[in-house]
């Protein structure tokens, strides 16, 4: 994932170094980080997760400690921004291999290239391998995936 460059290291990578220990302290996992532009200015979005789901209390504790850590290093983000800490949601994006692994046996929507044409498939994520994922009975190479997310299918 990209980010604002700081002395050759991306801002996201530097933030990850700060956020991961805070997540560990509160028994949650870091799912993703985004630094985005909105109509109201920049927003640092930190998505956390844990088995059984994230509570408002989890978000509050991580937000409080992260806010304090970021205030102690004012040179890290030198523009005004808003911090948001939340769950990635039921329908969460799958960007990294670890995201796919955590979504095994869940329904996903995946867009991928197949013989120079874009296809979209909704199905159950069965397997995640070094080079590919298996959705229902369709093998999709990681390098062909354009976009994927978990989906909620009402039973």
List the helices and strands and how they pair.
Elements: E1 5-6, E2 9-10, H1 11-25, E3 29-38, E4 41-49, H2 56-72, E5 81-86, H3 97-102, E6 107-114, E7 117-128, E8 132-135, E9 138-141, E10 145-150
Parallel strand pairs: 4-5
Antiparallel strand pairs: 1-2, 3-4, 6-7, 6-10, 7-8, 8-9
Report on this model:
The chain is an alpha+beta fold. The protein has two domains: 5-86, RimP-like superfamily, N-terminal (GMP Synthetase, Chain A, domain 3, 2-Layer Sandwich), CATH 3.30.300; 97-150, Roll (SH3 type barrels), CATH 2.30.30. The protein has helices at residues 11-25, 56-72, 97-102, and strands at 5-6, 9-10, 29-38, 41-49, 81-86, 107-114, 117-128, 132-135, 138-141, 145-150. The strands form three sheets. A five-stranded antiparallel beta sheet has the order 9-8-7-6-10. Strands 3-4-5 form a three-stranded mixed beta sheet.
In DSSP terms, counting alpha (H) and pi (I) runs of 4 or more, how many helices? 3
CATH level-4 homologous superfamily of the largest domain? RimP-like superfamily, N-terminal
State the secondary-structure class.
alpha+beta
Mean pLDDT: 91
Radius of gyration: 17 Å
> Which fold name is given in CATH as the topology of the largest domain?
GMP Synthetase, Chain A, domain 3
How many discrete structural domains?
2
End-to-end separation: 34 Å
Quantity of strands, as a count: 10
Unreliable spans are 1-9
State the shape: elongated
CATH class of the largest domain: Alpha Beta
- Quick one: biggest sheet? 5 strands, antiparallel
């Amino acid at each position: 994932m990209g980010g604002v460059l700081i002395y050759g290291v991306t801002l996201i990578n530097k933030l990850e170094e700060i956020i991961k220990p805070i997540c560990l302290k509160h028994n949650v996992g870091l799912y993703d980080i985004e630094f985005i532009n909105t109509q109201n200015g920049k927003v640092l979005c930190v998505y956390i997760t844990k088995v059984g789901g994230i509570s408002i209390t989890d978000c509050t504790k991580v937000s409080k400690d992260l806010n304090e850590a970021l205030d102690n290093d004012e040179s890290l983000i030198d523009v005004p921004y808003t911090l948001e800490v939340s769950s990635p949601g039921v329908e969460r994006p799958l960007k990294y291999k670890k995201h796919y692994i955590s979504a095994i046996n869940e329904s996903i929507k995946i867009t991928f290239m197949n013989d120079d044409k874009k296809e979209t498939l909704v199905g159950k994520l069965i397997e995640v391998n070094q080079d590919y994922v298996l959705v229902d009975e369709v093998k999709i190479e990681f390098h062909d995936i354009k976009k994927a997310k978990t989906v909620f299918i009402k039973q």
